[in-house]
Amino acid sequence: MTTSGRTVTPASRTLLALAAVAISFAAADTYVVVLALPEMMTSVGLGTEELQRAAPIVSGFLLGYVAILPLIGRISDLRGRVPVLIGSLVVFAVGSLVTAAAYDLETVVAGRLIQGIGGGGLIPPTLALVADLWPPHRRGMPLGVVGAVQELGSVLGPLYGAVVLAVGDWRAIFWFNCAIGLVLVAAILPLRRASSIDVAGRPDRSTGRFDWPGAALAVLALAGVALVMAAPTRLVQDVEIGRAYLPVTGDSRWLTPLALVTFGLVVLLVLRLATARRPLVDWRAWPALARETDLWGAALLTVALGAVILTFASAEPESGAVSPDAPWLVPVAVVAAAGFVLRQRRAARPLVPRGALRARPAWGAIVVSFFVGAALIAALVDIPFFARLTVYRDSQLDAALVLVRFLVALPVGALLGGWLLRKVPAHVLTAVAMVLSAIAFWHMSTWDATSLASQVETWSLVLAGLGFGLAIAPVNAVLLAHTADAVHGVSSALLIVARMVGMLLGISALTTIGLRAFYDASDRIPSVDRLCGAGGTLCQAYRDAVRDAGIAQLHAVFVGAAACAVIAAVVALVLLRPTHDTSRAEA
């Protein structure tokens, strides 16, 4: 159902490389707050015991990353891949700036939300770009590269945060993100005319002379916003410059001379956008784009996904499966999802064009992605949990480093999967990959309290990571091979959404199963008096019994993850088999 793609040029490879770098930074940003979160909490007035109040710093990024992905994917189908890539990078840079300059919890969360929108928006156009530029039989390696850099971000994120924190504070992480985002925009801009194409393979007519005056006004306006928000101590306390920070009236920082100048720059920017022949942002195309995009459908889907994310991302995996707000979030998600389905049937131009996922392998890839995500989350959450419960009880860092063995294998597997895709059918490769992960999880369900002390156990972590990595390229390739060029963006977005929703629902279901096993094991623990003697003083035997109950909980989770991986393998074998039409087209 796809074209053979156009000739791959050096500019095309450079463009993909830059997009891959951008994706790696965005993926790293998902994990970069792991080490920085305590310092971020302190800077906005939260104590270390108020972790639940700080949860939106993490869930806000995830919400932005996932909730509007289908809309961004659809816009990339209608507007072009490269313009959406550039726009997403700009949004990511702006979100980084807002986060770096934030002065309270609300502005930190707002910055992280904007970052997530920009970071998530990079992936659908990049995957679609691979399909636009490479013919089906040559997509394996570029898709493997995209998958590898995305997974590499999970490894580099905490390390990147640690390096920056060693020489600066948490704000430096996000200032650096902002700078990298703008540098990547500057690097991609010259490639628009050479490499950007529309969804029909024709040169993208959106390219043209760059609006440097508009860009200058935008940079100055953003710099003003940053200075108002950050209010650097050296500037505020300077005898002369400090006057710019004295409010004209009241005590709001947004009523200072500096803020008023910033508002003036924003007005000048709006006037420039409205009057320039080729403005920085081509707003004249927005009405036509809005008519072709089902904004009501996108809004309903965003609300549904947002409610699902908040329901599960705000839960504590060790104690509960869902957020305390689930009683009202779940009905909102159900009603919004039902509204989206109804809108899809009735809209003249639905968000997901009718018939876009009609082919069995296309919707099958989305189903496989869901179960892959459901299995993957068990490794990301429960392997460090197991390490902290057993061998590394006194070191959270050492427990987290156990997961690195798994995470390093993921990008290696993604590259290997891209290469093997030239020799092995996608459905077979995916099934084998998930069977490998299932075997690894089954072995993890036999771990005891001393297993992770042995380096031999590294093989199961590596095997699980390789399995998940091997599945990335073939699942993406099947989806792109069985969907039309004009819907590659939105279909790629749905694939990512399916994986993320699978992770959220997976952690909920697996946590529920695990907690039931924990309670059953706890009920069998003898009383403290029986184990430790009269007086009720806790002894090592009782502590070991509680630890063993925790191990039973994680064993149940690993068995559940193995089952999800097996389901993914079976579904891949059944649903990802190439259709006759696709086989003939790729030949």
Concise summary:
It contains 24 helices and no strands. With 587 residues, the protein is mainly α. Helix 11 (212-230) packs antiparallel against helix 13 and helix 21 (488-523) packs antiparallel against helix 23.
Report on the architecture of this protein:
There is one protein chain. This protein has 587 residues and is an all-alpha fold. It contains 24 helices and no strands. The radius of gyration is 25 Å and the shape is globular.
Helical content band: over 70%
Strand count: 0
Helix and strand sequence: HHHHHHHHHHHHHHHHHHHHHHHH
The outline comes out as globular
Category from helices, strands and their pairing: mainly alpha
Strand share of the residues?
A: under 5%
Uncertain regions spanning at least 5 consecutive residues:
1-5, 194-206, 583-587
Largest sheet: none
Helix count from the secondary structure assignment: 24
How far is the first residue's CA from the last residue's CA? 12 Å
Whole-number average pLDDT?
85
Rg result: 25 Å
Any chance you could write out the topology, listing elements then pairs?
Layout: H1 10-31, H2 33-43, H3 51-67, H4 69-79, H5 81-100, H6 105-120, H7 123-133, H8 140-167, H9 170-188, H10 192-195, H11 212-230, H12 233-236, H13 257-275, H14 286-292, H15 295-313, H16 326-346, H17 360-389, H18 396-420, H19 426-444, H20 458-481, H21 488-523, H22 528-532, H23 540-575, H24 580-586
Helix pairs in contact: 1-6, 1-7, 1-8, 1-9, 2-8, 3-6, 3-15, 4-5, 4-21, 5-6, 5-7, 5-9, 5-11, 7-21, 8-18, 8-20, 11-13, 15-16, 15-21, 17-18, 17-20, 17-21, 17-23, 18-20, 19-20, 19-23, 21-23
